[in-house]
Design goal:
By secondary structure, the protein is an alpha/beta fold. Helix content is 20%, strand content 25%. The radius of gyration is 15 Å and the shape is globular.
Length: 124
């Protein structure tokens, strides 16, 4: 069997708040949670596990490939919530989206300070 991505743990100061943010933004399904994890599951089966580690959280970057319809709905949600987003990872082009790689993309910070990227076309 070839390797495939199964799950990752995302550090958060409030695992419930972070899980809700990702679940709503990505329209992901709730998943059974256990122990220190609050879990959601993406459509391809990948499990995102949110945990509250007893250490300082270092920013990570998480990129999600979405279709045009989900991108439009996520962008509308961000605007409705008056949440900042940018067209670039350096956060210089606030309130804009990019049109790179033949698609569209944006960057937003999650509640724990991680950088999320939504893109409609893969880089390669």
């Amino acid at each position: 069997m070839p390797a495939s991505f199964n799950h990752t743990i995302i550090a958060s100061s409030d695992r419930g708040e972070s899980a809700r943010f990702y679940r709503e933004l990505l329209e992901a399904a709730e998943a059974p949670s256990w122990g220190p994890f609050t879990n959601i599951q993406l459509a391809d089966g990948v499990l995102l596990q949110f945990a509250e580690p007893p250490v300082e959280i270092q920013m990570q970057h998480y990129a999600f490939l979405v279709d045009d319809e989900l991108f439009d709905r996520a962008l509308a949600r961000l605007r409705d919530q008056h949440r900042e987003f940018w067209a670039d990872p350096q956060r210089q082009r606030a309130g804009e989206i990019n049109h790179e790689h033949g698609g569209r993309g944006l960057y937003v910070m999650d509640p724990a300070g991680h950088g999320l990227e939504l893109l409609t076309r893969p880089y390669l």
